[in-house]
Amino acid sequence: MKHRILILAAMEIERRLLLEKMRNPSTRLVAPWLEAVDGELDGVAITLVQMGIGKVNAGVATALLLVSQSYDLVVNTGVAGGLVDGLSVGDVVISDELIYHDVDARTFGYALGQVPGMSSSFVSKDSRQLEALLSESGVRDFSLQRGIILSGDQFIAQEADVVKLLHHFPDALAVEMEGAAVAHVASLCSTPFIVIRALSDKANGQAQMSYEEFLELASRRSAQIVRELLNGTKEKNL
């Protein structure tokens, strides 16, 4: 079986919703702390991994998998906090660009969010094509938008933090803790990537309660879009 798509999730619930739909799953140990499950999902060969929360866990897991095997696409699925009024809990954002919001080397002339020596953002070059595939998937009872997703080692749960993020990154739609690290490593490995995030909260003063209440709903929405994406790539023979 040729493994084409690497699917990465931070948390067990995000992984479980896809794992329970896989055919012929086979587990292998990539590292003492990291398992990968190879198999098929909706007729597409995939590897599914729970990488852990935060940028380091995400980056290490992505690197280990991409070094061990070749993939045609990296997909990071999960939840995020929404940053704009036009998005509601349960809506889904797919990445156009990923930016670190907690990297600051501006003293040396770099842009906010830019790791020295790297680009200022990580662009999902196939996002328009993938969005077009998803637009053919039928009617949904939630919104799907493409745009900028921010990442950092912080759970954003205060309105003041949202205001600050939007001051520096006015076009950002969502914020989470892993996507930019996945994109960073995938870029280094010259592997296409897409980050799919359903909103579990609005990253404000109610974020913790909203997150706890809507985590499963948001995870299901993100998993749904992943499966729509897999079916679209299969039908288009991409």
From TrEMBL:
Superkingdom of origin organism: Bacteria
Keywords: Amino-acid biosynthesis, Glycosidase, Hydrolase, Methionine biosynthesis
UniProt-listed GO biological process terms: L-methionine salvage from methylthioadenosine; L-methionine salvage from S-adenosylmethionine; nucleoside catabolic process
EC number: 3.2.2.9
Gene3D superfamilies: Nucleoside phosphorylase domain
Pfam families in UniProt: PNP_UDP_1 (PF01048)
MF annotations from Gene Ontology: adenosylhomocysteine nucleosidase activity; methylthioadenosine nucleosidase activity
Pathway where this protein functions: Amino-acid biosynthesis; L-methionine biosynthesis via salvage pathway; S-methyl-5-thio-alpha-D-ribose 1-phosphate from S-methyl-5'-thioadenosine (hydrolase route): step 1/2
A cellular-component GO term for this protein: cytosol
Keyword Transmembrane tagged: no
Boundaries of every Nucleoside phosphorylase domain copy: 4-230
Record-given protein name: adenosylhomocysteine nucleosidase
